[in-house]
Input
Amino acid sequence: MDTIKDVWIKGGKVFGSNGSLAPDGAVADVLVKDGKIADAGKTPPTPEIRQIDATGSVVIPALTDIHAHIYWGATALGVKPERAASRSGTATFVDAGSAGAANILGFQEFIHRPSPFNTFAFLNISFPGIYGFSPRVMIGEAENPKLLDAETCADAAREFSDLVVGIKVRAGRIAAGDNGDGALRRGLNAAERAGLPLMCHVDLEPPRIVDILDSLRPGDILTHCCRPEPNAPIDDGQIRDAAWKAKERGVLFDIGHGMGSFSFQTCRTMVDAGFVPDLISSDIHCMSINGPAYDVLTTMNKLLALGVSFDAALAATTSRPAGIIGHPELGRIEVGQTANIAVLKADGGAFPLFDVSGEHIDFEGAFSCQHLIARGALVPPADMQN
Ligand SMILES: [Zn+2]
Output
């Protein structure tokens, strides 16, 4: 199949967020020439260019999924990003700790370099990464303190600084057994040494959610922030003081939906109190990509269904994660930059909106993705790729 790198997107409402092609929400054309965003006024489109009629649609920077598992073939939980990209308008996938120091080289060689998408990684504090995660075999990579060497992790983060954007620790009973507090401390130590943010997973205690929240530094990320109680940022239907204090300090709250970590009830309590999550991500892996998470666009639809504004949801899936990974250009539509663009229509969405407890919401305003341009090239639908 020929790669299409010249595209004229006509008549959509553009939300380029500071790329300054047009004010956010204005109807404008977006021209992609040789994979780069061009000035339609200066470079008139040629007649043979691929045209996309975006009337009635929104044209946005392609989404950045800051918590995904894409180390396909090397870890059992990994999925090919191709499966989720075109259906969700996602051009940037950040792997959240599938690889550790022992196998980040493989991530670089077999995933990052050949990928048609922008790919990055949070490096797991555990040496082998998430090595035992499947429907029948489930071994926490943070259970054994011998696997958690902060210096080794920080050295690898520095060596692979082109793609490693932070450190990941899965601190919680399921991933760390009794070692949750120790895993959290070592994760923080590695992040400190590497000068990078820490993304911390939470499940059951230990550690207690309040201890995690009190330990995280400004710029660190709590993922699975809308998990069902217990050990959630809400307790008995109220947001914990420790969560408010962490938010005020600059700790970022990330959805990380996955198979067990997103509850409408938790999220509703937070949103109704004005505690809007900073980052919306899918946590797609082998047991969440076919539901209940599906992808980051479906996760974003759930937040919209609960009343989060379009602007806030868009920032949480584009400019904010792109900034955190040190690539703000991936979160805007700007003349001269490589095109990473999604065209979305509010037509009810591609997937039903279920949370992990089985609660279902009907939402007519849910978005589906009509077109994706990733790294300058139009991405065909997943069923047309090999
Ligand atoms: Zn995950």
User: Anything to note?
Assistant: The chain has two domains: 7-60+334-384, 62-331. Residues 62-331 form a domain with the TIM Barrel fold (CATH 3.20.20.140). The pocket of zinc ion is lined by residues 67, 69, 96, 256, 258, 283 (CB under 6 Å). The chain has a mean pLDDT of 96.
